[in-house]
Specification:
Shape: globular
Strand content: under 5%
Number of strands: 0
Distance between the termini: 17 Å
Oligomer: single chain
Order of helices and strands: HHHHHHHHH
Length: about 240
């Protein structure tokens, strides 16, 4: 039978250590301990670095919004930054899981966080589109807008595949077929997170930010890189089919 990553089952003794082996570090460095609650997944290993980065990024955006004149448009960066924050938490909570019970609980929390994130992001999209329409603005012409649209589309596809492959595997012809694409779901999730950071970076070059919010590109990049520094070492190679 195929494993959760679509790779044939291996010797149980070796499989446990491989599933716990992060991209950087030693086996078990970024794994949830059997006696620890899932809440510790948010800070285990290098997660504290990721938490510092994503909360700094969120604080940068929110501080810029609330120190500028507040308008309907203000909700766009607030909701979108909240969505990115939630997506990051969804990744962090699931990464360290490796036992069946942990994976089930982690996946359920991951799904709730991601769905809440998507609702926040969609609300942000609706607000900016309403603002554009009411002011006769041009849609999806800036780098920020184009990257944002691409990210929205990929995120929705990602969510639909993630939910259906886990909760309704029969749509894929059975559990084994659904499990075979989990690794691609994980890979694309990390790609989407990078796209989020690229989109926020591009937002610093828009006229609205230059004239009103004054968020600095270097600050966004530093916070984004800090978040990735915390997330990347926790990637478990077995889950991506790399080992």
């Amino acid at each position: 039978m195929a494993s959760a990553t679509g790779i044939p089952d291996q010797n149980p003794a070796s499989r446990g250590s491989e599933e716990n082996e992060p991209l950087l570090g030693e086996p078990g460095d970024a794994s949830q301990k059997s006696e620890k609650g899932i809440q510790f997944n948010f800070i285990i290993g290098t997660a504290v670095i990721a938490q510092a980065g994503i909360w700094i990024l969120t604080a940068i955006v929110w501080a810029a919004v609330f120190t500028a004149p507040v308008s309907l448009f203000s909700a766009h960066p607030l909701l979108n930054s909240a969505g990115v924050l939630l997506t990051t938490q969804a990744i962090l909570v699931l990464q360290p899981t490796h036992l069946p019970k942990q994976k089930k609980q982690g996946t359920n929390i991951h799904a709730v966080l991601n769905m809440t994130s998507i609702l926040s992001l969609i609300a942000g999209l609706i607000i900016i589109e309403y603002n554009k329409i009411s002011h006769g603005g041009i849609h999806f012409v800036s780098v920020h807008a184009i990257l944002g649209l691409i990210t929205y589309i990929l995120l929705i596809i990602q969510a639909l595949i993630g939910i259906t492959q886990y909760y309704t595997p029969s749509l894929y012809g059975g559990l084994d077929n659904a499990k075979a694409i989990w690794k691609y779901h994980r890979m694309s999730g990390y790609l989407i997170l990078v796209l989020f950071f690229a989109t926020i970076s591009a937002a610093t070059q828009t006229d609205f930010n230059k004239n009103t919010l004054h968020i600095q590109l270097w600050a966004v990049i530093v916070a984004s890189v800090l978040t990735l520094i915390g997330i990347v070492p926790r990637i478990q190679m077995q889950k991506l089919g790399l080992k």
